[in-house]
């Protein structure tokens, strides 16, 4: 049986341990062929560095897609992360429509916000376009802030299960049947991930570590996609991704002044172990 081939669409931050520099090694370590469509090239990510360069690759996308179509190149799944422009989201929708094999899974990480705020450079027009992309996805992988921007529900730091369920219903009302909702915390010292599949709610709770790192959303979503493509069910993929991300955060805490990302590389053997 041939192994799976996926396409991931997100930026290359040359330095910063996020987006493609995470997705490529993490999904490859899961034993899945990982093809890329870079959305933009930045010298670093935008979360803490200043003066970074940004080359938007929006206008390269239609020709890349057309070449793949001419060559008959198709993918078993398409997974999107940080995108470079509002206009680009339209081209990504076109890739969804034309580059997936029959039944290809579409996974959208609406990577655009955290801690109650949009990332640098994004606006409400981008959010509206991202809402449309989520409507075409089989799975969306938002954090709390992204879920709030997508649904228009007010962001809260303190919440209960009723609030999370309201967000889940509003997210699925956008048109996406399944939500992998990260960073949901109901108890002090604990956090976890909600897996909401076709209206069924399940929750994987784990320890909340004292340190947090930039880029863990990308590590999480990439490990989730890799595990899903290895044939795990959504709940198991969500659990494996959570355990791996926790290990990455633990390893990062042992490093001196590693502020710009998570040290995910030394933890890759753990991910491979979790997949067995
Ligand atoms: O980790 C999300 C991400 C991806 N790519 C770029 C970013 C960020 C978050 O800040 O700036 C360029």
Write the topology of this structure:
Layout: E1 5-15, H1 20-29, E2 33-44, E3 54-56, H2 61-71, E4 75-80, H3 86-99, E5 100-108, E6 113-114, E7 117-118, H4 124-134, E8 139-140, H5 144-151, H6 161-173, E9 178-181, E10 190-197, E11 200-207, H7 216-229, H8 234-253, H9 268-274
The structure holds 3-hydroxy-5-(hydroxymethyl)-2-methylisonicotinaldehyde.
Task: Give structural notes.
- The protein has about 280 residues and is an alpha/beta fold.
- It has a single domain, classed as Ribokinase (UDP-N-acetylmuramoyl-L-alanine:D-glutamate ligase), CATH 3.40.1190.20.
- About 40% of the residues lie in helices and about 25% in strands.
- It is built from nine helices and eleven strands.
- The strands form two sheets. The chain has a nine-stranded mixed beta sheet with strand order 3-2-1-4-5-8-9-10-11, with helices on both faces.
- A hairpin with an 8-residue loop joins strand 9 and strand 10.
- Bound molecules: 3-hydroxy-5-(hydroxymethyl)-2-methylisonicotinaldehyde.
- 3-hydroxy-5-(hydroxymethyl)-2-methylisonicotinaldehyde binds next to strand 1 and helix 7.
- 3-hydroxy-5-(hydroxymethyl)-2-methylisonicotinaldehyde binds near residues 13, 18, 45, 119 and 217.
């Amino acid at each position: 049986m041939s192994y799976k081939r996926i396409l991931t669409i997100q930026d290359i931050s040359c330095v910063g341990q996020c987006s493609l520099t995470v997705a490529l090694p993490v999904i490859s370590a899961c034993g899945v062929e990982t093809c890329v469509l870079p959305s933009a090239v930045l010298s670093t990510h935008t979360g803490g560095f200043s003066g970074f360069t940004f080359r938007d690759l929006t206008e390269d996308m239609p020709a890349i897609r057309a070449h793949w179509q001419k060559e008959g190149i198709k993918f078993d799944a398409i997974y999107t992360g940080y995108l470079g422009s509002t206009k680009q989201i339209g081209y990504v929708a076109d890739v969804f429509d034309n580059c997936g094999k029959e039944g290809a899974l579409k996974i959208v990480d609406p990577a655009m916000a955290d801690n109650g705020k949009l990332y640098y450079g994004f606006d409400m027009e981008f959010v509206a376009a991202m809402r449309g992309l989520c409507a075409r996805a089989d799975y969306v992988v938002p954090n709390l802030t992204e879920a709030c921007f997508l649904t228009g529900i007010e962001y809260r730091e303190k919440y209960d299960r009723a609030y999370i369920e309201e967000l889940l219903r509003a997210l699925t009302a956008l048109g996406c049947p399944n939500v992998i909702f990260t960073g949901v915390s109901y108890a002090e010292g604990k956090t976890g991930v909600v897996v909401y599949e076709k209206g069924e709610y399940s929750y994987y709770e784990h320890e909340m570590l004292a340190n947090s790192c930039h880029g863990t959303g990308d590590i999480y979503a990439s490990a989730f996609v890799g595990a899903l493509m290895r044939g795990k069910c959504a709940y198991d993929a969500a659990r494996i991704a959570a355990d791996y991300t926790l290990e990455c955060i633990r390893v990062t805490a042992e490093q001196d002044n590693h502020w710009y990302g998570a040290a995910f590389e030394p933890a890759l053997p753990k991910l491979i172990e979790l997949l067995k």
